[in-house]
Write a structure and sequence with these properties.
By secondary structure, this protein is mainly α. It has 10 helices and 2 strands, in the order αααααββααααα. The longest helix is centred in the last third of the chain and has 51 residues.
């Protein structure tokens, strides 16, 4: 039988997913301008709603990945929805602000339960399954318990690509008046796609305790910030830098902090 705290957390996650969708609909209703930037950011916010359904499935399967996934999902959801509430000019609509306040309380409560409740902590113990090739053939086995901060760094780095692609696609709508930036925007989109592969490779080797993968992921994180933030400032202005650059800075900060907290590789410990 599912423990009562887990049932309560599942109900809270469903309420958070519904609240996210309601806030997005309110933003669409009250937004004075439905331009390209608003459409791209609204689409990204809707994708985040699907992420809550994945998190619910993770909790029901007692997956340890639910903790970092919930933290990153709550963080990026608040940024994704929050940048829709603030218009380019004027004051935000009161219903949108109230709904965002409710969503903030729900997200904070979800993260608190995931990381602070002992019953939920005891429930989320199953590790993801990995493909293993044996004499009997290919099978999927549960991975051994690992450092939770490694898992957090891996999942946080996966958000780099969409957080780069969203402002890049928003910038596409501004090229009519400054065609000289077309190549930069194309390069921005290609870099956002390339980062997804770089993060995937780093995450693969990071999960196996590679010190070089940690160093590489730090370099990728710094390169992403150095590449993305100036383009946000130049092509989208201060408003775009805050709306689209701030979520990337938070994701990068979480990745770097998690990498700092990761345990040292066993090979290094043994050698010392």
């Amino acid at each position: 039988m599912t423990p009562r705290p887990v049932r309560a957390l599942t109900a809270l996650l469903i309420a958070t997913a519904v609240a996210t969708l309601v806030v997005e609909l309110l933003n669409f209703w009250y937004a004075p301008d439905h331009g390209v930037g608003f459409a791209v950011r609204t689409g990204w916010a809707l994708v985040r709603t699907l992420g809550w359904l994945i998190l619910i499935a993770q909790v029901r399967r007692s997956r340890a990945t639910a903790k970092p996934l919930g933290l990153i999902l709550a963080m990026t959801t608040l940024f994704a929805v929050g940048r829709l509430i603030v218009p380019t000019s004027g004051r935000p609509a009161l219903p949108g602000l109230i709904s965002f306040g409710v969503l903030t309380v729900l997200c904070v409560t979800v993260v608190t339960l995931l990381y602070r409740h002992p019953g939920i902590d005891a429930h989320l113990v199953n590790q993801p399954r990995r493909p293993v090739l044996t004499r009997e053939g290919l099978s999927f086995r549960e991975a051994p318990p690992g450092d939770p901060w490694v898992l957090t760094a891996r999942l946080a780095s996966f958000s780099y690509s969409p957080l780069m692609l969203v402002p890049a696609l928003v910038a596409v709508g501004t090229l009519r008046h400054r065609l000289e930036w077309t190549f930069a925007v194309i390069l921005w989109i290609l870099a956002g796609i390339a980062v997804s592969y770089a993060a995937l490779l780093c995450a693969f080797f990071l999960g196996r305790g590679s010190h070089r993968a940690r160093t590489t992921l730090v370099g990728v994180t710094l390169a992403v910030l150095a590449f993305d933030l100036p383009l946000c400032a130049v092509l989208l202005g201060l408003d775009g830098l805050i709306r689209d650059g701030a979520p990337l800075v938070v994701a990068a900060g979480l990745t770097l902090y998690a990498l700092r907290r990761t345990a040292r590789p066993r090979t290094c410990t043994t050698a010392s």
